[in-house]
Amino acid sequence: MNAPALETRDLAKRYGKIEALRGVSLSVEPGEIYGLLGQNGAGKTTLIKILLGITRNWKGEARLLGQPAGKSAVLARVGYLPEDHRFPEYHTGASLLQFYGQLLGVSRDLRRTRIPAILDTVGLADRMHTKIRGYSKGMKQRLGVAQALMHDPEVIFLDEPTDGVDPLGRKEIRTMILQLKAQNRTIFLNSHLLGEVELICDRVGILQKGRMVREGEVATLTRQKGSFLVGLAPGQTLPVAELQKLDYVVAPYGERWEIHLRDDQTIDPVVDFIRSQGLNLRHLVEKRQSLEDLFLETLKEREAPTQRPVPR
Ligand SMILES: Nc1ncnc2c1ncn2[C@@H]1O[C@H](COP(=O)(O)OP(=O)(O)O)[C@@H](O)[C@H]1O
Ligand SMILES: [Mg+2]
Question: What are the tens digits of pLDDT across the range 146-182?
Fold first, then answer.
């Protein structure tokens, strides 16, 4: 197996009394899109800044491309779209990339081929000679990514890439991120917006007050364990009482029925029972919750203990 593109172990950071990170462990494989999610103040930006060597005096382990975080040779292989960045508005997309390419020491020949290719990747090819002043927020974010691609990085950090961007602009940013993945780059993105992240991330971690509270593949996290929706042919009714006698938890769900499985139960006896009754099964799916539902549920679970009575 390949070495992880980046990894942290028990990462902890304090700003005075504020514990921004309280022991965060994660690992991202090369070529993956990883989403670090959480409310504002959860510690997402701090984690990126540690990996990039911007933030110092932290505890634990942090490695990027096999090297301890902050090594400058590694930074040359990394791209970064910071939160709330701004470019001078008198540039056009193309002139900005020329300028940053020169700053980064990208040769004239490479700039000549790379700039149009990058503007194509980020979907700005047709606007490259327009002044940034006239760009939408989404276009500015995509130009920010274009700038971060000038030195052809392997790993790209995107801090809140869709913050303040309208729905169409967000979709364009998602398309762009998938393009970056298709180019075999590793993408680490921070976001407090969940709904859109589940559409493109391979894995996500949910950070809350500096702790990782959930982590995994999006598909796995959003599967509700042991819950099925059952639908029968029109006009047929599920014998709920009979199923309850068989010890299943059944509840109506619109035109359908929701069946919760206990730990040791499977759905097969339900299917057998439906068939034995001469009923026609038309719909059987495992129920999924959205990442947003999962996130809100996680917040509730975690916040509940603080409501315990104050000891006397
Ligand atoms: N330079 C800093 N000085 C003091 N506190 C900071 C600094 N940077 C971040 N914090 C605090 O650390 C916590 C985590 O912040 P941050 O990593 O920016 O979270 P997020 O990116 O998830 O919104 C917050 O409580 C924030 O106020
Ligand atoms: Mg942040």
Answer: 999 999 999 999 999 998 888 888 998 999 999 999 9
280-292 confidence digits (pLDDT tens)? 999 999 887 788 8
Angle between helices 108-121 and 167-182 (to 10 degrees): 130
pTM of the model: 0.83
Q: Please, what are the domains in the chain? A: 6-220 (3.40.50.300), 224-288 (3.30.70)
What is d(CA 176, CA 189) in angstroms, rounded to the nearest whole number? 13
Residue 296's pLDDT band (cuts 50, 70, 90) = confident
Please say whether the beta carbons of 252 and 230 come within 8 A: no
- CA 85/CA 144 separation, integer angstroms: 8
CB 139 within 8 A of CB 169: yes
From 17, 19, 22, 45, give the residue whose CB has the most ligand 1 atoms within 8 Å, as the site to mutate.
45
129 burial level (CB within 10 Å; 0-12, 13-18, 19+):
exposed
Q: Name which residue sits closest to atom 16 of ligand 1, judged by CA.
A: 43
From the CA of 208, the nearest ligand is: 1
Q: How far is CA 114 from CA 28, 97, 101, 123, in A?
A: 27, 10, 10, 14
Are the beta carbons of 104 and 150 closer than 8 angstroms? Answer: yes
* Per-residue pLDDT reduced to its tens digit, 72-114: 889 989 999 999 889 999 999 999 999 999 998 999 999 999 9
Q: Whole-angstrom Cα distance, residue 63 to residue 55?
A: 14
